[in-house]
Amino acid sequence: MIFTVGGIKGGTGKTTISTNLAVWLSQQGADVLLVDADEQESASDFTAWREETKKGQLGYTLVQLNGATVRRQIEQLRPKYDHIVIDTGGRDTASQRAALFVSDIYLIPFAPRSYEIWTLSKVQALLGEIMGGRATPLQVFSFLNKADTRGADNSEATDVLRENEELNFVDYPVINRKAFATAASKGLSVFEMIPLDEKAVSEVDALFGHITGIKK
Ligand SMILES: Nc1ncnc2c1ncn2[C@@H]1O[C@H](COP(=O)(O)OP(=O)(O)OP(=O)(O)O)[C@@H](O)[C@H]1O
Ligand SMILES: [Mg+2]
Fold this sequence. Notes:
By secondary structure, this protein is α/β, with parallel strands linked by helices.
């Protein structure tokens, strides 16, 4: 499967979700390619730290791809891997559009703050254009990341996302937990970070299980 993690907002957790998903898939024994399609190169930075921490045992292959050629390059790479995870930048870029034309699944994290929701119409416009240019439908999943443990912000954001059917909101929130940042600074997923934050692990595990349909 080819996953694009995107959206039109910075800092929602795209790289966090991409890198954790790449590791999660590789832990199931799959051959995984992580594509860094963001000029900020955060997925590449994560991978560089991972090289050090894991002594070269990454568990996935990393490539950097940019611009409209992403589409053709992914098509060429597709047969070589079980899964491809594409991390995009937080804007409407040529790379994100190109990635969406060849992806099976589009993951859109939203952080539950009211300003996040303002990019919804842009995401919808982008989706409309992509869907129009594809032979097969793109499977979309939106979800909350950096969610509060409880509180009004989560439920307000959930309500707004639910109103937009094409965003296919799934109720598998990933809570704002220090473990994500701590793990990332070492190039690790939360599945590998000792001590294990069991809540963080079970949240992403549930989300990934749902979107991939993979039963462990
Ligand atoms: N669930 C979470 N809990 C706590 N911190 C998180 C969570 N998800 C992401 N973060 C932190 O939030 C910051 C932004 O996350 P990340 O880099 O994944 O976002 P992004 O969408 O890729 O950003 P950009 O748009 O700049 O590419 C990072 O410091 C990351 O560690
Ligand atoms: Mg990023």
